[in-house]
Design brief:
Elements (H helix, E strand, L loop, with lengths): L5 E4 L5 H12 L3 E4 L6 H10 L7 E3 L7 H15 L4 E4 L14 H29 L2 E6 L12 H20 L5 E8 L5 H14 L3 H12 L8 H12 L10 E4 L7
Helix pairs in contact: 1-2, 1-8, 3-4, 4-5, 6-7
Bound molecules: nicotinamide-adenine-dinucleotide.
Length: about 260
């Protein structure tokens, strides 16, 4: 379905981004990976997912908190892949503290990586998408893009901002073949959440398994984690022709979190 398209997924060396990359590759899209840490294993995984289609997989290590590096990544995509057809803004970090204790540099980093990076990739990707009259932009927000939790002021502000940014750019492109939407996951068991589970276990003096059950029980009625593959399949749906008139939505996949 996506043969000949190129998907750039930020923060795709791990977790949700890697799940998105795998599912898009399985539909035949070439993939440009981005993120920190080991690159060889995720690259091999995505190549295998798209093997039947003979896809290409590239990588650019731009730090998403740095606009100049984002510009270099977009230039790499144009030079090596002829541009970006599917842009998934997924890179994100978390820090948990009450506002009066929130480190200023953590606030700045969360706003830069979780929000401003999507502004930069979009402003650079939209002109070529408009010219082709086809494009898909998928911003990975969060249930925290729609409701708040204590201790997550920067994350909640960034994710609410990302949902607003999504709506605005969706309106700007509404008469074109470019769609812009946000996906809002509930809890997904990735390294980002594993850290929060371990911190909860230590704080409450309970086992990691009990902390995991407690974390789900507080917010996610299904008591099951959403998986990166399920989120990847939602991204595939948004890239299909059925997604042509899905515009400016903040689509939650959250085990019932937002229904409460
Ligand atoms: P993760 O920690 O597994 O992956 C984060 C990815 O971003 C990694 O590839 C990492 O290398 C990359 N990254 C971090 N800082 C970066 C930077 N400065 N520049 C480039 N890449 C960077 O986390 P995850 O849980 O897969 O989170 C992915 C996205 O999903 C984030 O935006 C997160 O807010 C969002 N999200 C996660 C959950 C969850 O429960 N895990 C829920 C809702 C939303």
């Amino acid at each position: 379905m996506l043969n000949g398209k190129t998907a750039l997924v930020t923060g795709s060396t791990s977790g949700i981004g890697l799940g998105m990359a795998n599912q898009l590759a399985a539909q035949g899209a070439n993939v440009i990976l981005n993120g920190f840490g080991d690159v060889d294993a995720p690259k091999a995984e995505v190549l295998a997912a798209g093997k039947a289609h003979g896809i290409r997989v590239g990588y650019h290590g731009a730090d998403m908190s740095k606009p100049a590096e984002i510009e270099a990544m977009m230039a790499y995509a144009t030079a090596e892949f002829g541009g970006v057809d599917i842009l998934v803004n997924n890179a994100g970090i978390q820090h948990v503290a009450n506002v009066e204790d929130f480190p200023v540099e953590k606030w700045d980093a969360i706003i830069a990586i979780n929000l401003s990076s999507a502004f930069h990739t979009m402003r650079l990707a939209v002109p070529a998408m408009r010219a082709k009259n086809w494009g898909r932009i998928i911003n990975v927000a969060s249930a925290h893009g729609l409701v708040a939790s204590a201790g997550k002021s920067a994350y909640v502000a960034a994710k609410h901002g990302l949902v607003g940014l999504t709506k605005s750019v969706a309106l700007e492109t509404a008469t074109t073949g470019v769609t812009v939407n946000a996906i809002c996951p509930g809890w997904v068991l990735t390294p980002l959440v594993q850290k929060q589970i371990e911190a909860k276990a230590e704080r409450e003096g309970v086992s990691v398994e009990d902390a995991q059950r407690g974390l789900l029980g507080e917010k996610q009625p299904s008591l099951q984690f959403v998986t990166p593959a399920q989120l990847g399949d939602l991204a595939v749906f948004l890239c299909s022709s059925a997604g042509d008139n899905v515009r400016g939505v903040a689509w939650n996949m959250d085990g019932g979190w937002l229904a409460q």
